[in-house]
Specification:
Elements lengths: L8 E5 L7 H11 L3 E6 L2 H13 L4 E5 L5 H15 L4 E4 L15 H29 L2 E6 L10 H21 L4 E8 L5 H7 L10 H12 L10 E4 L5
Helix pairs in contact: 1-7, 3-4, 4-5
Length: about 240
């Protein structure tokens, strides 16, 4: 049976803990026929997620690495290309909010960590795959921004995600003559295990589901979205 991503190779970053978006995205891509490279900082976590995926019949290569380090990024990308011969789809999912405090309390270390975790990693991974995608005649990069207006106490994270949107538009312009499409997904509140534990919501009906986000990633990775580049798609569930 032909599926949307049959014969494609996808590298997904940030596939770490159970109950998170990375796990759902990797499952959805594999279900549509993609061979996977998955990465996260923790070797234990990324290998655990790979085991789950293999149990469903997926072909998956786990590679641990620090994506804020350009040498580590190149090693991850080279390892995936060595295994599969190419990378057709890059999903820059690694990142997240880790520093929640007023701007005056943000240290330089706080700022640098959040920018590196959310923006620098997306840039380094994109830069590493672009040459191969160009030589192959095309590819797809999917970044992760955030939905809604900036919120207080998240200055570094807000700025990093605004940078991700600018990165998305810039790379889309640079990639259009080489068949490389670049888009972003902007989730609202998502029903991840960590969010539920931290916020203890009484009602999840207005939250976006991990599977909803994964389906949008599959759409952007496939030929179904061939006419879309340079765009940011908000996925907010019913919490508009």
């Amino acid at each position: 049976m032909t599926t949307l991503l049959s014969g494609k190779v996808a590298l997904v970053t940030g596939v770490s803990r159970d109950g998170q978006v990375g796990q759902a995205v990797a499952r959805a891509l594999a279900a549509e026929g993609a061979a996977l490279g998955i990465t996260a900082r923790s070797r234990e976590n990324v290998e655990a997620r790979a085991g789950e995926l293999r149990a469903t019949g997926a072909r998956v290569l786990p590679v641990a690495g620090n994506l804020a380090d350009e040498t580590e990024v190149q090693r991850v990308v080279d390892r995936v290309i060595s295994e599969y011969g190419r990378i057709d789809v890059l999903v820059n999912l690694a990142g997240g909010l880790t520093r929640y405090k007023p701007a005056v309390e943000h240290t330089l270390q706080d700022w640098n960590y959040e920018i590196a975790n959310n923006l620098l990693a997306a840039f380094l991974c994109s830069r590493a795959v672009l040459p191969g995608m160009g030589e192959a005649g095309g590819g797809t990069i999917i970044n992760f921004a955030r939905a809604g207006s900036p919120q207080a106490n998240m200055v570094a994270y807000n700025c990093a995600k605004a940078g991700v949107e600018a990165l998305t538009r810039t790379l889309a312009l640079e990639g259009r003559d080489r068949g490389i499409r670049v888009n972003a997904v902007a989730p609202g509140l998502v029903d991840t295990g960590s969010n539920i534990e931290a916020m203890k919501p009484k009602d999840l009906k207005k939250w976006a589901k991990r599977e909803d986000i994964a389906r949008v990633v599959v759409f952007l990775a496939s030929e179904a979205s061939a006419g879309i580049t340079g765009q940011t798609l908000a996925v907010t569930g019913w919490g508009i």
